[in-house]
Amino acid sequence: MKILAYLTKIGHPALSHNMLSLVTALSNKGHNIRICDVNNADEARGVLCSLLEDPNCFDMSVGFNSLGLEWKIAGYTDMVYLYDAVNFPHVSIMLDEPFNHCVSGYDLPCRNHIVTYLDRSDLKALDILYPDKKMKKLFMPLGGTVNEDNSEPLFVPKEYDVVVSAGNWAPGTSIPRWRQEGLKKSIIAILDDVADILMNYPVSLLPAVQEVLYARGMYDKEYLEVLTPYFWPVLQFIKPWRRHQMVKCLVEAGFKVHIFGGGWQEVSFYDALIDHGIVPYRQMLDVISKTKVLVQDEAMFNDGAHDRVFTGMLNGAVVVSEYSSYLEELFEDQRDLFMFDWQHTKEQMEVIHQLLSDESYRADIARNAYKKVITSQTWENRAERVIEAVDIFRQ
Q1: Do 36 and 134 fall within a single domain?
Q2: Helix axes of 281-289 and 307-314: crossing angle, nearest 10 degrees
Q3: Mind listing the pLDDT tens digit for each residue in 127-149?
Q4: Going edge to edge, which strands form the sheet with 2-7?
Q5: Which residues pair with 90 in a beta bridge?
Q6: Is the same domain home to 283 and 251?
Q7: pLDDT per residue over 362-391, tens digit each?
Q8: Which of 62, 265, 295, 395 could lock onto 91 through a cystine, CB 3.0 to 4.6 A?
Q9: Dist CA 25 CA 379 (whole Å)
Q10: CA 141 to CA 116: how far, in whole Å?
């Protein structure tokens, strides 16, 4: 296939590297790739000229989030949406939940749009959030990334005992937004109950909302639709709460945690952390390859997966992850990885002491996980899924 791939160096630190990993995987499979850096005026102009000369000059295109779907063209005040007139498929690789306001592209004009999602419950969420948008949906967690500097990841010397790679975004959010905005008492009560579930059980947002509504006898989808504007405030509250709780439990269990990411300076247990701040993505890959135990929240993908789980396994770390029903299907708990919930977190993290004191045991777990993930959760695997999805719908 002749594939147009949109890239950018601006935005989330993992975006550029992950997109390059996908492009490399597509190229390795024999596809002809044309790269368009959306921040490079010459490259963008060249692609635009090609599309204007022949709207079907590519077999498909791909980009993260909204990359490639919106164009700012000289002489036009408003954004131009080329894919309103282009017939070949465009694949949007989405980086987070569809109700995360940092993710865009679902609602933009595109005749032949394939969008990925990271949690299986998002399929229903997309139908509710974008009922009028014609798009094909593909469940596809992001692939894991190998540190290219190490050809034998299982044998890299491990310098870090316990690592958490996560920013404490929206730090200090102790009072949920929905309690500050003068909402109806009925809405506040429902959202409070949703938050209570999410603070006690490792489930995704939509199933938690449905459980609260069903308990009230509210089965019609209209009740769910009314609540969708509040999904983002709930995510803003729960995601940092879970990360804060995860790191706090590690500290209370006696571990010196190497933390990579911003926003942790204000937490009450900061003195117990080894704060490395924000580091470039490539450097983080090197850190993970030198990590014994990588502890990871699922960022609300509790019926999906965060790519850092796969990246940890691909680089020889043992992963201790927040529970995910999808991960439970892929791996054997306590043999390939260890999972924790939000009711027994401290007890479930006690295994880290054994992993640090018994290198043979830790190495066995790392080896088990690596054997599984190297064959199924890399960007090479994701490239195969993208091509299959496109090929099914090609004319």
Answers
A1: yes
A2: 50
A3: 999 999 999 999 999 999 999 88
A4: 32-37, 2-7, 60-64, 90-93, 113-117, 136-139
A5: 61, 113
A6: yes
A7: 999 999 999 999 999 999 999 999 999 999
A8: 62
A9: 6
A10: 8
